[in-house]
Write a structure and sequence with these properties.
- The chain is an alpha+beta fold.
- The protein has two domains: 21-125, no CATH class; 134-351, Jelly Rolls (Sandwich).
- It has twelve helices and 13 strands.
- The protein has helices at residues 2-7, 18-21, 25-45, 50-56, 58-91, 93-109, 113-116, 154-162, 179-182, 185-194, 217-226, 241-248, and strands at 148-149, 168-170, 207-209, 232-238, 262-263, 267-273, 279-281, 287-294, 297-303, 314-318, 323-327, 331-336, 343-351.
- Strands 1, 2, 3, 4, 5, 6, 8, 11 and 13 form a nine-stranded mixed β-sheet that branches. Strands 7-12-9-10 form a four-stranded antiparallel β-sheet, with no helix packed on it.
- Helix 10 packs across helix 11 (217-226).
Length: 353
Amino acid sequence: MADDNFQTFPTVSSDVTEEEQNLSLKEKINLIDSEIRQLYEFCVKAGYTQPQIEQCAQPLLAVQSKEKHLHWFRWLFSFALLTALMVFLFYYDPTYREICIYGKFVAMKWDWTEIYNYECVIDNPYYVQDQLTEEDCNACKDFRTVTREANISTSRIADDFLFSNIPVIVTDAMDDWEALKKFDLNFLTEIYENNEVLKYSGTECQFETTLPQYQTPQELLSAVQSGEEQKFQAFWENCEKEAAKVFRKYYRRPYYMPPMTEGTEGNWFIVSLGEKKTLSVNWDCSATWMAQVKQTGTFILKPNEVCKSICRKVLVKLEPGEVLTVPNSMWSVSYKPVGTNPVVTFGSGVTWD
């Protein structure tokens, strides 16, 4: 048996023939690979175990291991050299100043608007935004009247209303807000005319009115104050941070909003005088709160497309000092003026994940 194995031992020579010298690199690699495979197959047939084969091939494996260590050492050395160079450049004051100057120059020239408008810098392919289903519509199937609550806890608001997509009115949220006394038609006209921030704000924000000849709240309020307009209705948003901040000092975040909700940056007004047309308004947030300041505000809550065949419209009359909160995933809001006196409503939104 030993003689047979010896006779079948593959012919492998360290001498290089002229024909082998003329082979291309790919052919040389294939030749070496073929000889190694022959040796391996011979050892397996001869009854050698895997550890024994590895021990016999140790000289060849040692060369491969050495090459791997050398490659790793070269990479580590290059990385250390690059790191040392970067540290030196940042600690060497003249070079650091040059880097800062050119860095600021590039930052000013770079167009950041596209990144600014992204909700996420890196999209998560496994994240799927919750979509309303017909099963969710069971929450509003028998919903007919918006309940009024006072001294309500944040946990109850979250569980019974926000997460259940049920609108609610809180009657004591504005008790200590200066807005309840201040926000009338005269105050709005004056502050938009005299405040340096508001005077030129709103050109890029949402503005809707029954008088299309006016493009900004400043123009509209000025015309109403001068008596040019006797009847109007308008909705506008203070989407610019500084403009929204002017009004924010007159109110606070509603006390009943849970900690997991984050207030939106802007705020908005709905103002009407003697107008009877219905105005539909939309907000890009998880829920919207509407604070009634002057007179009675009438709102129509409409179920969205998924639920409109299951749930009914709900009419809400909001009295001064009351705050209506509406989850936007299930409901859309329309405003219907009542009476001939100026009606003022303002509000903002909240978001959550």
